[in-house]
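User: Hi! Is it possible to get a structure for several chains at once, not just one? Here's what I have:
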Amino acid sequence: MGSQLAFKSRIASTASLEKIFNAQEMIASSHIAKARQVAMDAKPYADAIFDAVQAVVAHGHISHPIVRKEENNPKVAVLALTSDRGMAGPYTSSIIRETESLLGRLDAAGKEPELYVYGRRGVTYYKYRNRDIVRTWEGDTDKPGVEVADSISNALMDAYMRPAAEGGVSELYIVYTEFINMVVQKVRVLRMLPVELIEAETTLGDDPDLAAVEGVSPLYIFEPSIEEVLDVVLPKYIRSRIHECLLEAAASETASRQNAMHTATDNARKLIDDLTRKLNASRQASITQELTEIIGSADALNTKEE
Amino acid sequence: MAGSTMQVNIVAADHPVWAGQAKSVVIPAYEGAMGILPNHQPVLTLFQEGVVTVIDTNDEKHEFEVTDGFISFDSNKLTVAVERGRDVVRRTTDTVAE
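Assistant: Yes, the chains can be modeled jointly so their relative placement is included. Here is the combined structure:
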């Protein structure tokens, strides 16, 4: 049985931690609504781009580098989306685990993966282990703006469009966390480049939002020309897809943080209850002991008098 | 004229800018300004930085400053997708364009 003072100080510190966890949880739940709104706001643009790309695909065969697969270049890019801050439960660690396993698979397949990392936690993890990172981005992982998406997609598109001899890559994978609902977030590996447009078309039935595209007329006029339209629209499409991934990762991060903080708050409360009980038991024990001592000494005095 | 309006959606990368029915839209297309009226032929056009002018069903004129982007028009629905939302400035005037 520990001393009452020790219990009291542990209870006090746990109580202050509990307050922090609770505050973090409330902050996270207020951010969730915002993250959802941002994702909703970006959706019309993503849909517009997707429709345009589908229209172009329906129009004819595309030989743009973005859709062409270059088999002979072993270099591939891997982008891992992690968080800037901790206290988000297993969010960053599951991304890192998945990234590691993807890197292993790519290595085994004879590819040379190059790592790109977004989010301070991920960057710190790899820097500490002296791993080669081609490029990193930090900041605003819980509310990624268009600027970050722009910078990331520019860097990755640059790497993708460069010839193999100048260090270009032939594929791009993104490891991010898919937001399924408030309690379930799943780590996913997405092959972003080269774009598989034809497959996207055949899987239209899966997504009710895309089903409407089926009626696209092939009689579009393209101005200035179909090639120039593609040159502009495809990079925008990639940018928009990357932005979508960032937003989804941000929503997952916030949800993950809220869950983690909720569990932490619960645990802290349980710990406080437990410690309070121990404190009471310890106080009771000391009172009992004092009583025993008093009675014992009184008894001894009485015996002496007789 | 019946059916002389079209659905217009102006969207920026991070937020929708304007949506509604319109009588005509002028965009700063790649090779000069381009006017689009309802029931236009399906078209997908890039445009440059400039001002998109929308005349809505109440003959109100809406002007949007846009960065580069593209428009697509089909089934009487016009989508204007622009790059940057923060560069989009909305100026509404009640001058009637007749």
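The domain at 29-259 of chain A is CATH 3.40.1380.10 (Pyruvate Kinase; Chain: A, domain 1). The first strand of chain A starts at residue 75 and ends at 81.

User: Great, thank you!
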